[in-house]
């Protein structure tokens, strides 16, 4: 598995040649990638805020996954033709991956005249093996927390049952967790590696990622914090050794 951060909360995930794109928003200062260069098989949407769906219409050939409300909105407003609506706790199976939608604590308003919401916001756990109660030491699993506050489901459900190896957590504060809460999340998630996301895009979420590194160390977590440059791939095969 290879994951690539395109700035803000936008990630590409490649599993044996099958590609997924999470929260397409390329108008951010961390990426030089033109959306036209990206050709995902699937697009996962955590919630309907503009800084997570702005470039959705660039990927109309992909299969979209999100809450039923968000998929309906993207169909009506962005011309999306192929999508699956699902909800928290569900797992969407592709040919190469298992995508489990998990809780995120955030708002989810849609840009409509009548104040519609996109249902519950979400995070995604992407794994190359089917999640079960039986631990699988050889699986490779990436957790994108979405826009969220700290919540105990990270500790009580995601960590013990979905077993993420690499976690991407928002650190920008103001709209999501800040560095210290994100660090607690990393500790609770018991992952090997952590990537800070959702920062520096707008003035309210400007952050020094060194603060996040120090906060993770202060929890006693053994996770290594990775602060990739935008567009820099992270190869889980190399990180995990399998």
From TrEMBL:
Q: Where is the Metallo-beta-lactamase domain?
A: 7-198
The family database entries (Gene3D superfamilies) matched by this protein are listed as:
Ribonuclease Z/Hydroxyacylglutathione hydrolase-like
Molecular-function GO terms, alphabetical: hydrolase activity
Name the InterPro entries for this protein.
Answer: Metallo-B-lactamas (IPR001279), RibonucZ/Hydroxyglut_hydro (IPR036866), UPF0173 (IPR022877), UPF0173_UPF0282_UlaG_hydrolase (IPR050114)
Q: Which UniProt keywords apply?
A: Hydrolase
Stated family? Belongs to the UPF0173 family.
Q: Which NCBIfam families match?
A: PRK00685.1
Protein name per UniProt: UPF0173 metal-dependent hydrolase MBEHAL_1218
Task: Provide the species name.
Answer: Halarchaeum acidiphilum MH1-52-1
